[in-house]
Write a structure and sequence with these properties.
2 domains; Quinone Oxidoreductase, Chain A, domain 1; globular; Rossmann fold; about 325 residues
Length: about 325
């Protein structure tokens, strides 16, 4: 089978596309004929060597996938051949990566794909949907009527946070950098969409949120969080979710933080237990079926262009070029 792999860490140029053996499913695994995969920032960090997750080379890259069950292991109970499935959290902790024509996945990390959802949508929404749902509900306990702020509502995680928070009855504030981004955020249901470059941004957030008591849940997607600013905008007993910025070392406003009874939640989706991720996946499937969740696809490429896809992801994550809104999806050639 064809796969995108690396033999050493480095720039996107280390990604090769070539033949590798087709995997055989172990007793608890499902062999998936891959219909689509998507790119995440964590994929680029692993490939670059910034995050040490690779147990051996050659290493097939990728975390997300969607496709059709080709074969099942002897102990599989939840799926049968022909079922459509999606999943994430692969390529981590010794698990196989997904950027291949076939991938063998433990059934704990797979979920049924809704009948009307395409493989491209399912793959695009995998990691970002699980991240947003687990962050908002499992970790931060979002309730109806609360105010949520998330940077970059037209991005991967941002677009998921906007949709899932709105579906839960929250008031959602988000930001964008262009008319196209503003339109996407409004279409997804954001109550207030602001230009992140406006020097009055914080005043605009404050004016909207103060009648509700302030921002109850701040979902931080930026690599360099500014906690002085965030804390000043929070409602008493608000929650700040940190899920980005591995190298960030921001100043911390201890006094303003504790006198508001605030909480900061550190959260990495890939640490979630299989049961926690499955519970979130089932909720995402239901929301999709009721048109409350639609993964945002920014660009589609063939799987053989995996190196180009990683270049695009880094340009938007690290250089903040803003050339892709939503997820980068790849389709096996």
């Amino acid at each position: 089978m064809k796969a995108a792999l690396i033999r050493q860490t480095g720039s996107p140029s280390v990604i090769e596309f070539g033949e590798v053996p087709k995997p055989e499913p172990r007793p608890t695994e499902v062999l998936v004929k891959v219909g689509a995969v998507s790119v995440n920032p964590i994929d680029t960090y692993i490939r670059a060597g910034a995050v040490s997750m690779i147990s051996q080379f050659p290493y097939i890259i990728g975390s997300d996938l969607a496709g059709t069950v080709e074969a099942i292991g002897s102990e599989i109970k939840r799926f049968k051949v022909g079922d459509r499935v999606w999943g994430s959290n692969q390529g981590l902790f010794g698990r196989r990566g997904t950027f291949a024509e076939y991938c063998s996945v433990d059934e704990r990390w797979l979920y049924p794909t809704p009948a009307k959802e395409s493989d491209s949508e399912a793959a695009a929404g995998a990691l970002v949907g699980l991240t947003a749902h687990m962050g908002l509900f499992l970790h931060a306990g979002l309730g109806p009527g609360e105010v949520v702020f998330v940077n970059g509502g037209a991005g991967g995680v941002g677009s998921a946070v906007v949709q899932l928070a709105k579906a839960a009855g929250a008031f959602v504030i988000t930001t964008g950098g262009s008319e196209q981004s503003f339109a996407i955020c409004k279409k997804m249901g954001a109550d207030l969409v602001l230009d992140y470059s406006n020097h009055q941004l914080d005043d605009q957030i404050r004016a909207f949120s103060l009648p509700h008591g302030g921002v109850h849940l701040w979902f931080e997607t930026q690599r360099e969080p500014m906690l002085d600013r965030t804390v000043s905008l929070m409602a008493p007993r608000g929650r700040i979710v940190l899920m980005a910025g591995r190298a960030a070392r921001p100043e911390f406003p201890v006094g303003p933080f504790y006198v508001k009874d605030l909480r900061i939640i550190g959260f990495a989706m890939f640490n979630g237990a299989p049961e926690e991720q499955r519970a979130a996946a089932e909720k995402l499937n239901t929301l999709y079926e009721f048109d409350r969740w639609k993964p945002l696809i920014g660009k589609t490429l063939p799987l053989s262009d995996a190196a180009i896809a990683h270049e695009l992801q880094e340009a938007n994550t690290l250089q903040k070029q803003g050339t892709v809104r939503g997820k980068i999806v790849l389709i096996p050639d």
